[in-house]
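Quick check before the chapter quiz. The format below is the same one you will see on the exam, so make sure you can read both the input and the output lines.
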Amino acid sequence: MAGTESKKAVEKITSVDPAKKKPVPKAASKTAKLNVLPTFSTAFLMTKFGDIPTYTFSMKVRDVVTISYVAVRGKDDEVGAVQRPLSIRRINDIKSYIMDGNTFFNSFILNWTDENYSPAFAASAVIKIPLQTAAAQVIDGQHRLAGLEQAMEADPAIGDRDILVTLCVGLTTKQAARIFLNINTEQRPVPKSLIFDLFGEVIDDENHATNRATDLARELNDDPTSPLYKLLKFPGSPRGQGYIELSTFVASIKDHLKPPTGTFYTYKLKTLDTQRQAVWNFFRCIRDYYSNAKIWDGNKNPFIKAAGFNGAMDFFFDSLIKRCAEKGSFSIKTMKDFISLDTEGLITWDQLQGQDGKTARKKIRDLLESNLLNSLPDQEHYEF
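Here is the expected output.
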């Protein structure tokens, strides 16, 4: 029965697409040589997101897992790649949520990209979907699907659950980005500056640098694994929460985030993810040194003060980022090789109190710069 159904699905590629009111183009001549796939048939509801036709229906979890895949922006070189890298912590949390008997009522949004097989539409508002592996990009729901897949491995019965799918066909990257941003700005807030990463070449946003700096601050402040977790103070924050003012963070980094000449762009760190990870790794290095000396947690930490934080950022942008780029690595290990602080010579805030902000800022920068200068060759080893 499945084989008969599959044959019909391949043959009906030329049936009428109700959104376009014209025949869907036939697959290439090699279609006849393609493997005959099982298909999934169901009634659907057609709607439009602006000018984009969408088809909504319910489908078994195991079938959605089969046909879907994640295309990550900046990593996968294909049309429609707008997703961020998967978070293992979120996937595990979702798996636990599902194993506790919960499910999802909101739709999983997919973009069909496979060029050899295509959904077929019957006149009676029935869609036939070839169950081809990795045929549709996930536009929304990547973590939920990954959680469902892990839960299904633990309990195969979960694969028989129904979930709601909204399918698009052949979206461009810009169309996929519009849908992605529309969903995520309405549900779980996503960085405003992400729009520049998705299609920056057609977006002229004079507020980009400020938005990106604020987005970086939020991501570094809100993640419990971040070295700056809860150290930044946002407007409206409860009394006593945070130390480094948001305005201090933004002012220290904003000019370096202006494309195409800002420091980040000069050294090819163009996306939110790479910019965040570079700053994250830098402060992770500093935190490790100061934590080992039992100075990080408490008022002796100079980096939770404006002068100390600005001194660190001066060093990062004026010296460290160039060295890391030359070495082709922004890893924690690489940064520690350059910084290599002596725990006996760490500067505390007690030593900076009473000094003006400019002097204190320079002392922190000089501290971080000291190993870089010591690593330079002597004069007689230079070539002229």
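If your answer matched, good. The two ends are 80 Å apart (CA to CA).
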